[in-house]
Structures are given as structure tokens and as C-alpha cells.
Amino acid sequence: RHTAENELTCPIDYLEEQLEIGRREAEHLGVSIETHKASIHDLPFVTDASYGITLASNVLNLLNMEERLAAVKENKRILQRGRRGIWVFPPSSTESVSGNGEIIDQLKKDFTRAGFELDEQATGRYAVTTAIDFNTGEPVSSELRTFVLVGTNKEEANWRDGMFELRTDYSYGN
User: Fold this and answer.
1) Is the CA virtual torsion 139, 140, 143, 145 positive or negative?
2) Which of 71, 76, 77, 89 is the right S-S partner for 41, CB 3.0 to 4.6 Å?
3) Helical H runs in the chain?
């Protein structure tokens, strides 16, 4: 399906509840979407280089190391060359015990090794101050901190074990 911006949209989640939220929001925006209940690290129904943008939000931190590597490989496979992938991480998964940012530095290196040219201006820490309550659809005031990594699919990957190390974390707290 095509959005107003003429990009192919295909929300994928392993939770039906999340897909329902996506369908409801798309309907509210007047956008037609096709959803798939699946895992981000196994997308055999998606053809190579079929998307002009990908977004993986708060998901890599939920996967084990093997699944993370598979997920990034799948993301790269379905993303067209020269187009952008966006990854969103809760701060709890990117903060090291020392607080000096080494997990973020390593993530940047790993995504570069995976053949992504990082957009250093767009990549960084963000704070969302207004969110939408999924149950009511009403704006709510909040302060959700996140780390966003933006990269263009440029080169062949140099895959290796141990890439994309994060703190496994199921919370969205600061």
C-alpha cells in the first residue's frame, strides 16, 4: 500500500495488539496499510530492497544477540540501497553502568560495519514531551527519553559475531 508520501507501508509486529494500534492510527490518518504478524528477524514474505525507509522502534533491546544480528540483516535486505533505516532505543538499553556512552559508540561502529552510513546530525538522544495515549487517543504530557540511530543503506556488510550489543531491557523508563 502507499501512504500520502507515496512510500510503501507494512507494519510488522509479533503482538496483535500493536498491529491493531497501527491500523487504528492509519485509519485515523486516512492511510491504507497492510499489517503482518511476524518477527523482525524473519521476514520471508518481504522481497529484497522493497522498502524506501525502515523503522525499528524499541525492538532490538528485546532480542538476544543472535536475533539482533538476524534482525539487522533482514532490515538491510529489505531496505533499498541509498535509503534510510531508523532504529529507536530506550535509554535503559544504551546506557552502560559507567554512563560514558560506550554502548552507543559500539552501536554506531556496528551499524557502520553493517554497511550503513550514519547521519550524525539525526543520530542522537531525544526527549519526547507529548505522546498519545493508546487507549484514548488523547495527547498526554510526558517525558520519554530515547536514543535514535539513522543510517543510509550504502555498502556491503562486514558481519561478525557479537555485533549490536545492548543491555536487554523490557522497560521504557529513563
Assistant:
1) negative
2) 71
3) 16-29, 65-78, 91-94, 102-113
Residue with the three cell numbers 514531551: 129
What single DSSP character describes residue 61? G
Contact 169, 95 (CB under 8 A): no
Q: What residue type is 44 in one-letter code? A: P
Indicate the pTM of the whole model: 0.81
pLDDT tens digit string along 93-152?
887 655 667 888 888 988 999 999 999 999 999 988 887 776 777 888 778 888 999 999
pLDDT at residue number 1: 40
Distances in Å between the alpha carbon of 134 and those of 21, 131, 151? 7, 9, 29
- The Cα 3–Cα 52 span in angstroms is 12
* Cβ(88)–Cβ(61) below 8 Å: no
Express the helix, strand and coil content of the chain in percent, nearest 5 each: 25, 30, 45
